[in-house]
Every structure is written in structure tokens, then in C-alpha cells.
């Protein structure tokens, strides 16, 4: 379908589901859709819709799910969206929204998914998002967010995916994130985070992927990361980490990708890494490693071990 969304759809006052996703619809979202007070799901994602979210959408008091991602919507995110108190899914990703994330979104306590990625949002992550205790997915990556990661995000104990990469966040990684015991994805790469990697992250035993790449993290790699026995990918490259590679990383029996390059790591490559039989990608270059390469690591399909110019261990 092409062209604008007909304003006349606002006359269908008994409508409960309106799915217009993946078309070539253009123009603004009609204000008249705000008359569909029985609507529980509105899906307009993956079109070419423009202009701001109409204020009238906040009259959809029965709405549970609002999908507006992958359009060309502009303007600020309306703080009035918090009137949609039943909302459990809000996805505004991949638009051109500007301005701050409204702190009032923290009042939507039924939310399970909050997607604001790939916009032009600025300012800090509101601490009030830590009140969304039913949230399972928080996706804020690829914006222009600044300031620290709020420690209050550690209250989101139902969270499975936390992706806030590719912003301008600064300060330390809060130790409180170690309380997110259901987390499977923790992606904080491409920010300006400083300080050490908290040892508390070793408590995230359900974690599958940990991306801390391209920050300014310092200090050693915590041995506690060796407790993440479900981990598939560990990306710590392009930081300022020091000290040896912990032998405890050899406990990560499910690990498939280990990237530690472009740091200031020293000492020997632990022989224990040779026991990572599922490892298929390994990068250790641009450190200050010495000694020899454990023979079992030579079998990793994609690695930069030859660039280390170290002999095999005998």
C-alpha cells in the first residue's frame, strides 16, 4: 500500500487491532486515530511516515502495544505517552526523534519492551527508567545520549537485554548492573566509559554476550568473568585494560568469540584458554603479551595469533 493513512479509519471505533506495517505509507499519522479508544495494538512500523507523533494518540486508553519503528518520524518523544498506562510494548526505534528521553516514561510500569534505538536523542538516561521493573528489553543504542549510566538500572531485575551502545555515555560501569540476574545481552560498546570492569558482572550467569568494546576502561580483566559459563561472546577490545589475561577465562566452556585486542595486557597467554573447544574467533593483538601460544589455540578458525610473533608452547 502507498499514500497516506486515511483519516477515516478513525471512524472504526470498535477496532481493536490495526496493523499497517511494512508498506510504503507516507505522510503524517492521522490525529483521528486517537478516536479508536478500543484499540489494543497499533502497528505502523516499517513505512515512510513523517512529522511528529500526534498528541491525540494518548487518548488510546486501552492500548497495550504501540509500534512506530522504522519510519521518518520527527520531533520530541511526547511525555504525554505516559497516559497510556496499560502499555506493555513501546517501540519508537529507527526514526528521527530528537530531544531528551522523557523521565515520565518511568511511570509506564507495565512496560516489558522499550525501544528507542537509532534516533537522535540527547541528554542523560533518566534514572526514572529504573522504575520499569517489568521491563525485559531496554534498547537505547545509536543515539547521542550523555552522562553516566544510572545505577537505578540495576533495579530492572526482569531485564534480559540491555543495549545502550554507540552513545556518548561517560563515567564508570555501575556495579549495580551485577544485580540483573536474568540478563542475556549486555552491550555498552562505543561510549566513553571509564574506570574498571566491575567484578560484580561475574554474577550475570545467564549472560550470552558481553560487549564493552571501544570505551576507556582501565584496570585488570576481573577473574570473576570466568563465572559466566553461558557466555558465547566476550568483547573487551579497544580499551586500556592492563594486567594478565585471567586463567579463569578458560572456564567459559561455551565461548565462541574472545576479542581482547588493542589494550595494554601483559604476561603470558594462559594455557587454560586452550580448553575452549567451542572458540571460533580469537583476537589478542596490540597488547604486550609474551611467552608462547598454547598449541590448542592454533586450531581456532579465525584468529590473529600469527601476528603476535610468539612461538608455540612445547
Written overview of the protein:
- This protein is mostly beta strands and 314 residues long.
- The chain has a domain at 172-314: Leucine-rich repeat, LRR (right-handed beta-alpha superhelix).
- It contains no helices and 26 strands.
- It has strands spanning 2-3, 17-19, 24-27, 41-43, 48-51, 65-67, 72-75, 89-91, 96-99, 113-115, 120-123, 137-139, 144-147, 161-163, 168-171, 185-187, 192-195, 209-211, 216-219, 233-235, 240-243, 257-259, 264-268, 281-283, 288-290, 302-303.
- The strands form 2 sheets. The chain has a 13-stranded parallel β-sheet with strand order 1-3-5-7-9-11-13-15-17-19-21-23-25, with no helix packed on it. Strands 2-4-6-8-10-12-14-16-18-20-22-24-26 form a 13-stranded parallel β-sheet, with no helix packed on it.
- The termini are far apart.
- The model has no long low-confidence stretch (mean pLDDT 97).
What key attributes describe this structure?
Leucine-rich repeat, LRR (right-handed beta-alpha superhelix), 314 residues, mainly beta, 13-stranded parallel beta sheet, 0% helix
In brief, what are we looking at here?
With 314 residues, this protein is mostly beta strands. It contains no helices and 26 strands.
Write the layout of secondary structure elements.
Elements: E1 2-3, E2 17-19, E3 24-27, E4 41-43, E5 48-51, E6 65-67, E7 72-75, E8 89-91, E9 96-99, E10 113-115, E11 120-123, E12 137-139, E13 144-147, E14 161-163, E15 168-171, E16 185-187, E17 192-195, E18 209-211, E19 216-219, E20 233-235, E21 240-243, E22 257-259, E23 264-268, E24 281-283, E25 288-290, E26 302-303
Parallel strand pairs: 1-3, 2-4, 3-5, 4-6, 5-7, 6-8, 7-9, 8-10, 9-11, 10-12, 11-13, 12-14, 13-15, 14-16, 15-17, 16-18, 17-19, 18-20, 19-21, 20-22, 21-23, 22-24, 23-25, 24-26
